[in-house]
Design brief:
With 564 residues, the protein is an alpha+beta fold. It is built from 7 helices and 30 strands. The strands form 9 sheets. The chain has a 4-stranded antiparallel sheet, with no helix packed on it. The protein has a 4-stranded antiparallel sheet with strand order 8-9-10-11, with no helix packed on it.
Length: 564
C-alpha cells in the first residue's frame, strides 16, 4: 500500500520526492523537469512535512463523504440504465401504436373515398342507362312513324297524312330537344382529385416524433420559479354504477398519454379517466387507496394503509400488479428514477421498487401527521414534505438533511404537495382549500390562488380528504357541562354538496375529553383523550343526515363528513 502511494501517478517507475506549492501537486524528478522548472516553490516532501501537518481525521471524513456520494451516484446510474431499457420498450410501443393509429386513420380515409367512388359510379351508370332507354324509345317511335309515312305516301288519304305529318314533326322536335340537352361532346368518366396535402405533409416530415433525453429536455425547459396561475376550474363526475358511496378522490396522477388516474378512497377503487375525463377503466383494491405516483409511462404505484400496490395500463385497462407490504403506515408516496419514497405520518422512508427498505431518511414524532404527503423535484435533489399539524412545508435533501422549513398564513393544514415536470412546487392547503406555489428551494411563497377548490367533486393535485368521526363536545369539555355545541347548516345540506353522517343513538355512548399531554414522551402525541373510547366506529354504521337550511346537530353526537 505504501509503495503504491509513493509512486508517481504519471511516471509509474519514479517515486514522489517533491511538492510544488505553486500548483499544489506532488512531483517526481521527471515531473519537475518537464512541468515545474519555472515554479518558485518546489520543495522536498520531507521539508513540506515539517511546515504542514495534515488533518487525517478530517480527510477521512471527506473521503467517506465522497465515497458515499459516488456510491449513491453509481446506484442512481445503475437504476437509470434499467430505466432507460424500460423507457426504450415503452417508447418503441408508443411509436408502433402511433403508426397503427396513422394506418387506421388512413384506412378510414380510404374507405370514405372508396364509398364516394362507388356512389358516383352508381349514379353515372344509372344516368347513362336512362339515356340509353330514352334514346331507344325515341328511335323506335321515329322508326314507326317513318314507316307509316312511307306507306301513306301517294295514297290520297289527306287526313291520315296530316296526322302522320304532325306527329312526325313532334317526335323530331322531341328528339332534337333531348339531344341538345344531352350533348355527347365529352365521354362520361370519373375523375379523382387527390388530396396532395397528405402526401406533401408526409414528405415534409423526417420522423414520427422527436426522440430526446428527458433530462436534457428538462434542463432546456425547466424554470422552477416561474409563477403559475389558475385559469379555469372545471368539475367532472367520476362516479360509476358500482360505486356505493360518493367519490373521495385523494390522489391524482397524469400519464404522458393524457390519461388521468385517480384514487377513490371510499369505494376502494382506482379509476382511469380519458381525455374527456370520463371513467374509461377501473380496478378494485383491498384497502382504501390514498396517494398515487407515476412509476413509468404506463405504471403507477398506489399506497393504502400498510402497502403499496403497483397498477399498470394494459390495452387501455387498469390491471393490478405486484404488491409491497410495509412495516409502517403509508400516508404519501413519490417516485424518482427507481427510488420510492413513502411517508408514514411521522417518518420518511426510502425504498427500492422491489420493496427493499434502504433508509429512514427523516423523522418527526411530535405529531402523527408531521410527515404527511411528499413529492420529489424533477432532478431528484429535493424532497418536499407537508407537516399537516404544524402548518408547514419542509424541504429535504435526498439523504434526509433538512434544507428549509416554510410557514405562511395561507398554508393551513397543508395536505398535498406536487412538483411539476418543470420543478414548480404546489402546496394544497386543507384549511381553506387553497393552492400555493412555493419556490423550488421551499423557502418563499411565489403565488397563491385566489379561488378555493370545491371539496368532494373537484380533482386537484391532492384532495383534502375528510374529518374523522368525532364529538365536538370533546374539544369544548367543561365539568359540570356548561357549554353546548351545535352545528348549524347555513344552507341546505344534501348528499350532493356534502351533508354530515351520524350513528343513530351514539349520543348514549358517553363523552370524551381532549386534554394536553404535558408528560409527553418521545413518539407520543401532544394531546390525549379521556373518557369512553367510542371513536372507532365502522363506516357502515353511519347514515346520511341531509338537513334544510338552519337545521342543526348537537355536539355529543359522533359525526363525520365521510361522504364529503
Amino acid at each position: 500500500m505504501e509503495d503504491s502511494l509513493l509512486k508517481c501517478d504519471v511516471h509509474k517507475e519514479n517515486k514522489l520526492e517533491t511538492f510544488c506549492q505553486d500548483h499544489q501537486q506532488l512531483c517526481c524528478s521527471v515531473c519537475v523537469l518537464l512541468n515545474h522548472r519555472q515554479c518558485c516553490s518546489v520543495i522536498f516532501i520531507s521539508d513540506s512535512v515539517k511546515k504542514m501537518s495534515p488533518d487525517m481525521r478530517h480527510l477521512s471524513i471527506n473521503l467517506q463523504t465522497i465515497l458515499d456520494e459516488l456510491n449513491k451516484f453509481k446506484s442512481t446510474q445503475e437504476a437509470s440504465i434499467q430505466y432507460v431499457d424500460v423507457s426504450y420498450s415503452e417508447k418503441l410501443q408508443e411509436i408502433q401504436d402511433l403508426r397503427n393509429k396513422l394506418n387506421a386513420a388512413l384506412d378510414v380515409q380510404e374507405k370514405t373515398t372508396m364509398k364516394e367512388l362507388d356512389e358516383i359510379r352508381s349514379t353515372l351508370q344509372t344516368t347513362l342507362k336512362n339515356d340509353l332507354d330514352n334514346c331507344s324509345r325515341l328511335k323506335d317511335e321515329l322508326k314507326q312513324i317513318s314507316e307509316a309515312v312511307n306507306v301513306l305516301y301517294d295514297k290520297g288519304k289527306k287526313e291520315i297524312e296530316f296526322i302522320a305529318y304532325i306527329k312526325c314533326l313532334e317526335k323530331i322536335q322531341e328528339s332534337k330537344t333531348y339531344l341538345k340537352k344531352n350533348r355527347v361532346d365529352v365521354q362520361s368518366s370519373i375523375i379523382f382529385k387527390a388530396n396532395i396535402a397528405f402526401e406533401k405533409y408526409l414528405f415534409e416530415q423526417e420522423r414520427l416524433g422527436m426522440i430526446v433525453d428527458s433530462m436534457q429536455s428538462l434542463r432546456l425547459k425547466m424554470n422552477p420559479d416561474q409563477m403559475m396561475t389558475v385559469k379555469r376550474i372545471s368539475e367532472y363526475s367520476v362516479r360509476i354504477s358500482s360505486d356505493t358511496r360518493s367519490n373521495s378522490g385523494i390522489g391524482v396522477c397524469c400519464l404522458p398519454s393524457g390519461q388521468v388516474i385517480v384514487t377513490d378512497s371510499y369505494n376502494k377503487k382506482v379509476k382511469m379517466l380519458n381525455e374527456q375525463y370520463h371513467v374509461s377503466s377501473h380496478c378494485d383494491v383491498p384497502c382504501s387507496p390514498e396517494g398515487i405516483c407515476q412509476i413509468t409511462s404506463s405504471e403507477v404505484a398506489v399506497n393504502s394503509y400498510k402497502d403499496v400496490q403497483f397498477i399498470s395500463v394494459i390495452n387501455g385497462q387498469l390491471v393490478n400488479g405486484r404488491k409491497v407490504q410495509l412495516q409502517h403506515a403509508a400516508c404519501g408516496i413519490a417516485h424518482h428514477q427507481g427510488s420510492l419514497y413513502v411517508t408514514s405520518g411521522s417518518a420518511l422512508y426510502h425504498y427500492t421498487l422491489d420493496g427493499s427498505l434502504l433508509k429512514k431518511l427523516y423523522e418527526d414524532t411530535g405529531y402523527y401527521d408531521s410527515v404527511f404527503k411528499c413529492a420529489v423535484s424533477p432532478d431528484g435533489d429535493r424532497i418536499y414534505v407537508t407537516n399537516n399539524s404544524q402548518h408547514k412545508l419542509i424541504t429535504l435533501a435526498t439523504d434526509g438533511t433538512l434544507i428549509s422549513t416554510f410557514k405562511d398564513p395561507k398554508i393551513q393544514s397543508p395536505w398535498g404537495v406536487h412538483a411539476t415536470p418543470s420543478g414548480q412546487v404546489i402546496v394544497v392547503g386543507a384549511g381553506d382549500n387553497s393552492l400555493i406555489q412555493v419556490d423550488h428551494e421551499g423557502k418563499n411563497k411565489l403565488a397563491a390562488s385566489q379561488r378555493r377548490l370545491k371539496v368532494g367533486k373537484h380533482l386537484a393535485i391532492n384532495n383534502i380528504g375528510h374529518v374523522i368521526p368525532h364529538q365536538d363536545s370533546a374539544f369544548l369539555f367543561t365539568d359540570p357541562m356548561r357549554l353546548v355545541c351545535f352545528w348549524i347548516a347555513l344552507e341546505d345540506a344534501t348528499l350532493e354538496n356534502g351533508c354530515l353522517w351520524f350513528i343513530p343513538g351514539s349520543y348514549k355512548l358517553g363523552e370524551r375529553r381532549m386534554v394536553r399531554n404535558h408528560k409527553k414522551e418521545p413518539g407520543q402525541s401532544g394531546i390525549v383523550f379521556r373518557g369512553e373510547k367510542n371513536s372507532k366506529h365502522n363506516d357502515d354504521d353511519f347514515v346520511d343526515g341531509p338537513v334544510k337550511k338552519e337545521g342543526h346537530a348537537a355536539g355529543l353526537i359522533p359525526r363525520s363528513d365521510i361522504e364529503n
